[in-house]
Amino acid sequence: MNWQGFWDGDHPIYVNARHRQIHDETLAHEISAEIKKPDMIVLDYACGEATEAHRVAEKCATLFLSDGAATVREKLNKRYQTNNKIIVQSPEDTAQVMDGTIDLIIVNSLLQYLTRDETKKVLADLHKKLKPEGCLLIGDVIAPDVSALTDANALLWFGFMHGFFFAALGGLFRTLFSDYRKIRGALGLTTWREDEFLSLLAQTGFKAQRRKKNFGHNQARMTFEAIKSF
Ligand SMILES: C[S@@+](CC[C@H](N)C(=O)[O-])C[C@H]1O[C@@H](n2cnc3c(N)ncnc32)[C@H](O)[C@@H]1O
Questions:
Q1: Strand 206-210 relative to strand 222-228, pairing
Q2: What is the count of structural domains for the chain?
Q3: Measured between alpha carbons, how far is 163 from 135 in angstroms, rounded to an integer?
Q4: What single-letter DSSP state applies at residue 54?
Q5: Sequence-separated (6 or more) residues with CB below 8 Å from residue 33
Q6: Percent of the chain with pLDDT over 90
Q7: Contact 140, 112 (CB under 8 A)
């Protein structure tokens, strides 16, 4: 199995329902805080199940939810079929969106599953979709020195803070025997040094900086803010 097959399958990346709920609520809250005007067009690329996306949609004019996995899109379509601000897309649909029309794009927790060349293509494609001065926020980028142990600690702490510590412990134990670990062992995760990623963003046409705070719970990972500059 590869990452594509993994995301299309029934993958237990959350340790329980509370973990998913808190994760999705946190992310929806953080994305909403980026929406400064109600007429903004927003794209959440590689959005996952985004169970709290209706909260984000309340803050903007249109919210595109784009994900590569057909099973994820099926769930999104069911969940948001009556929300007229949300448009569910495949990456191929997103490629058809008119260039220069999106104000804000979020890409959270995707790049570690892409090759370097795939990342370059995604960044270039998304750059085209942004309005001049539009903003791309890329979260959860992993630096080479961040180990799986650091990720495990961050999850346990998140669980402790939100009342699912023992479920997080059990989830980490199950991960040892999971498809995730097998694929991660076989394919690895792609990591980026901060300076290397900033230079890629500059080459792609962005004025970029690393933010102090990462999206989500794991502060060992990095979030970059990239403004379309040419
Ligand atoms: C770790 S989840 C992140 C979900 C969400 N952004 C979050 O932070 O909770 C990664 C998501 O990326 C999607 N994905 C993987 N490869 C993709 C690609 N090349 N293009 C678009 N989506 C992709 C997967 O289907 C999965 O839903």
A1: antiparallel
A2: 1
A3: 34
A4: H
A5: none
A6: 85
A7: yes
Tell me the HSE value of 146 on the side-chain side, using a 13 A CA sphere.
22
Q: Is the pTM of this model over 0.90?
A: yes
Summarised one tens digit per residue, pLDDT across range 146-155 is: 988 999 999 9
Question: Six-digit token pair at 140?
Answer: 């959860």
Task: For residue 93, give its domain range.
Answer: 3-228
Residue with CA at minimum distance from ligand 1 atom 12: 46
Residue with tokens 């399958």: 9
CATH, residue 62: 3.40.50.150
Instruction: Supply the residue whose CA is at minimum distance from atom 4 of ligand 1.
Output: 48
CA distances from 95 to 67, 78, 201 (A): 12, 23, 19
Measuring from atom 20 of ligand 1, which residue has the nearest CA? 68
* Nearest atom (ligand 1) to Cα of 7: 25
3-state secondary structure of 115: coil
CA distance 126 to 105: 8
